[in-house]
Design brief:
CATH architecture of the largest domain: 2-Layer Sandwich
Strand order of the largest sheet: 12-11-7-10-9-8-15
Helix content: 25-40%
Bound molecules: nicotinamide-adenine-dinucleotide
Radius of gyration: 21 Å
Structural class: alpha/beta
Distance between the termini: 50 Å
Order of helices and strands: EHEHEHEHEHEHHEHHHEHEEEEEEHHHEH
Low-confidence stretches: none
CATH class of the largest domain: Alpha Beta
Strand content: 15-25%
């Protein structure tokens, strides 16, 4: 039985509490965060996930559990990782370290995070749930023989869109790292790259060749939306971030030298029923499509009954309406890959190794995200085969992340 400790007790920690209800041999043993711990601990206890205790410091939590999870905001990552490294140095015995996406806000941060994580000698798992989505994994398994006969896929389209994040720190590019490209582009780029990676090859097998990106602030800089954000403490007139991002990533198979392309599209202006993940993969003579809003369950709530609606997000993440024809996803935790990523990471930790995605993989995704910002900023295709460009990315901090988005949006 592995004792799990979560650092952060907000939105994503809540999703993981729900996921853990479907994972055997794991106990949610501890939580540590400035906000949300008592409610989440009570919920976990009710759901018989163990004797979930609340700890005052990362060091105390590290001494009480086997696996630590960083589920805290992007701006707090490095400090938390340094606390974990110190706790391990002082004798905390950990079997695994889980880090939610995105690994860091820029490559420098990612490099430091990887250094600190590796210093602990503890196996790691980078949590990118979309790569574990059963819809994608099973489509790939079903097509494995076809892929073998016809050749690997050559085009992947991957999109995640919703109406905008739930907490102000996500909107602020200086705390989050950017706008929608940093927040959700990391999912779509990683998932797109996975959908093109030949079966059986490592997750970082394909060689990134180039990145071409366009970003824009299409909705949330306009009225009345800008004022709504301002009321939540986010000033997009002074410090804007992109609410639309389109990234084209060109990849090369290092053995066959065949090229493939990921189109990653993300937005925070998806004024539709709720969050939508849309993936399409095309290979020679085959394809598959995933649309997370296609659900077996529909609902109707009349105007007369709408006042009785308790919480629309119980039906669908980022749900935007409480009446009319509505979509309900009966098992979002499974649909989005949250259960499967635990089922990958925990046995790997028990065996003393990294999960399928490790911190180095997370850093690779950070590099690709930074290349996308650089492409938009410089209005050109970024050549990732050029060592000078790779070196530049090491210390590059996008203008949007610096709070100077007005220069490029
Ligand atoms: N995989 C996904 O689809 C997904 C979805 C949502 C969020 N995330 C990621 O998870 C992370 C957390 O996002 P969230 O939506 O849960 O945010 P949130 O704002 O809802 O919750 C953040 C939690 O972290 C705590 N926290 C803040 N500063 C801290 C610190 N210094 N030390 C410890 N805890 C601290 C807060 O008190 C809160 O409990 C982000 O990096 C985000 O990108 C991933």
């Amino acid at each position: 039985m592995l004792k799990i400790g979560m650092i952060g007790a907000g939105f994503v920690a809540g999703f993981h509490e729900r996921a853990l209800r479907s994972v055997r041999d794991a106990e949610l043993a501890g939580l540590c965060a400035p906000k949300g711990t008592e409610a989440l601990a009570e919920l976990a206890r009710q759901n018989r996930l163990g004797e979930t205790n609340v700890y005052k410091s990362v060091a105390d939590l590290a001494n009480a559990v086997d696996v630590l999870c960083i589920f805290a905001p992007n701006f707090a990552r490095l400090e938390i990782m340094a606390d974990i490294a110190r706790a391990v140095e002082k004798g905390a015995e950990l079997k695994g370290l889980i880090i939610e996406k995105p690994l860091a806000r820029n490559v420098k941060g990612a490099t430091e995070l990887v250094r600190l994580a590796r210093q602990t000698n503890v196996p790691t798992a980078y949590f990118e749930n979309q790569i574990h989505m059963p819809a994608i994994v099973q489509a790939r398994a079903q097509l494995a023989q076809v892929e073998k006969a016809m050749g690997p896929a050559h085009l992947a389209r991957s999109a995640e869109e919703h109406g905008g994040p739930h907490e102000p720190w996500f909107w602020d590019p200086t705390t989050q790292g950017g706008g929608v490209c940093c927040d959700m582009g990391c999912h779509s780029i990683a998932c797109g790259m996975f959908m093109l990676t030949p079966s059986g090859k490592p997750m970082d097998y394909l060689r990134p060749v180039s990145v071409n990106a366009t970003m824009a602030l299409l909705k949330w800089g306009k009225e009345p939306w800008a004022s709504q954000l301002k009321a939540r403490g986010v000033d997009y007139a002074a410090t804007p971030a992109e609410d639309y991002s389109s990234v084209t990533l060109e990849l090369e198979d290092p053995q066959t030298h065949q090229r493939s392309i990921v189109q990653a599209i993300n937005s925070w202006m998806y004024d539709a029923p709720g969050l939508r993940l849309l993936m399409e993969t095309f290979g020679p003579g085959y394809s598959y499509t995933v649309n997370s809003l296609q659900s077996p369950t529909g609902m109707f709530i009349s105007d007369a009954a709408a006042a009785a609606v308790l919480d629309t997000e119980l039906a669908l993440e980022k749900s935007q309406a409480s009446r009319g024809s509505l979509i309900l996803q009966p098992n979002e935790i499974d649909l989005y890959g949250y259960i499967a990523e635990w089922l990958d990471a925990l046995p790997a930790f028990e065996a003393g190794r990294d999960g399928a995605l490790n911190v180095e993989y997370g850093k690779l995704i950070t590099e690709l995200i930074m290349a996308a910002y650089m492409s938009h900023e410089q209005r050109k295709v970024i050549d990732l085969t050029d060592p000078t460009v790779r070196a530049e990315l090491e210390s590059y901090v996008p203008l949007i992340q610096q709070g100077k988005g007005n220069e490029v949006l």
